[in-house]
């Protein structure tokens, strides 16, 4: 079957949830057993987002194949339940890079290299080569940014050209503000967005309307008239109790049937069993039986998108345990220099210390880890959270004052965490960390890690430059720290655990592989532990 295309474009403003809409469309197509694949375009001129501060662009998502990609890939994987590859991420940087390198090789000899047709041809070639290689039934292309931006204008033009060669369905996600005073949903901004697309030669098949409350029939009628569309093509995207309900909501509106018709696919019945399981999981997410309180400690908490995968992993694990997880966001630098209100952890059922780079906030993290250990609050350390768990143990249990990570204090007396050997000669920053899926052997039969994964060899995604210093393994082990997971060559420590209570740190980022229907095992174990603590706080 020839690949068909869906292009998702946003108008008016960013942050409307284009990623979630794209993820929901992928989920719907999968419900119908169509092979659906996303492609994301980001207009920035960085090759990828790996060198960006999380405050710039949210979390950097890492795939198995070690690509550092936009956080929307996290949404796609969580909705689709499949691991994706880096070639699906197209950036302005990659596109310009390949056109310029072709020009240097003399591939355009004699020609003036231009945005149209050379760059747009390159885009179409990229897309078609993904289609030929991976053979999806439907490719869902999300265009980053909004219509009217300079950064994505040439990509939108390429999508118009793509539609001259292939079956392409255009979807325009827009925003309908409601004015408090009159309580009316205003359609004018959406009309302007629709017209901007018309100017680019693109007529949307659907307008998806982001609204705080239900899209009114009168609003639908008005927009339909202006856009020359039938009313059932104006789709309601009101706030959901959980974003995982959006595919089901879209199906209730009949969006699935129209979409499949527009794509020219033969109608078929959706897979009822898949839908039922998804629905059940949504039910447990929205109205679970119990609750737990989770403290999420980080150094970029002012932008919660920095921890999107951690937050979602908690939500997935909570649903599995039939509880609601109330997340308390804690900025670690608030717990430094004698400051910090530890009484706020009184009702905390588990603490997670997240990954990060640079020294700011790390002393606060160490203080919080000490508090967790001493008060037997279940603890999960992710990457940096594992490294600092080792440092805390060295300082406060093994009696190694001044212990630290070489990343934060290169002259520390006891460097518990040091630069990876493989990093020592690297100076370039882009894509040079230890990245992607790495195998890890769980060496201890009875350990938190083994109990969680129920396997002795596992694979998780990584993104780091520093590692546990094996020189300190004997002394820390003697003091009671357990090393429960290592790389197959036994050179790198991957998991450490406290001997008493529930405390585990991993050099990996298990949150990156957590899916709505398959929560990350360590998160599931942590929430399970938190649930029993919530039920018996004093034990
Ligand atoms: N900064 C640490 C390192 O590079 C931890 C990285 C992380 O948490 N992802 O090893």
Structural overview:
- The chain is of the alpha/beta class.
- The chain has two domains: 4-281, P-loop containing nucleotide triphosphate hydrolases (Rossmann fold, 3-Layer(aba) Sandwich), CATH 3.40.50.300; 288-535, Rossmann fold (3-Layer(aba) Sandwich), CATH 3.40.50.
- Helix content is 36%, strand content 23%.
- The protein contains 17 helices and 23 strands.
- A nine-stranded mixed sheet has the order 13-12-14-15-23-22-21-18-19, with helices on both faces.
- A hairpin with a 5-residue loop joins strand 3 and strand 4 (68-69).
- The longest helix has 20 residues, at 115-134.
- It is globular, with a radius of gyration of 25 Å.
- The chain binds glutamine.
- Glutamine is lined by residues 355-357, 383-384, 407, 463-466.
Mean pLDDT comes to: 95
Structural category: alpha/beta
Percentage of residues assigned to helices: 25-40%
CATH class of the largest domain: Alpha Beta
Strand content: 15-25%
Instruction: Tell me the CATH superfamily of the largest domain.
Output: P-loop containing nucleotide triphosphate hydrolases
Total beta strands: 23
Distance between the termini: 60 Å
Into how many domains do the coordinates divide? 2
**Could you give a short account of the major beta sheet?**
9 strands, mixed
> At the third CATH level, what is the topology name of the largest domain?
Rossmann fold
Strand arrangement within the widest β-sheet reads 13-12-14-15-23-22-21-18-19
Low-confidence stretches: none
What is the CATH architecture annotation of the largest domain?
A: 3-Layer(aba) Sandwich
* Rg on CA atoms, Å: 25 Å
Given the structure, what is the number of helices? 17
Shape: globular
Bound molecules: glutamine
What is the oligomeric state here? single chain
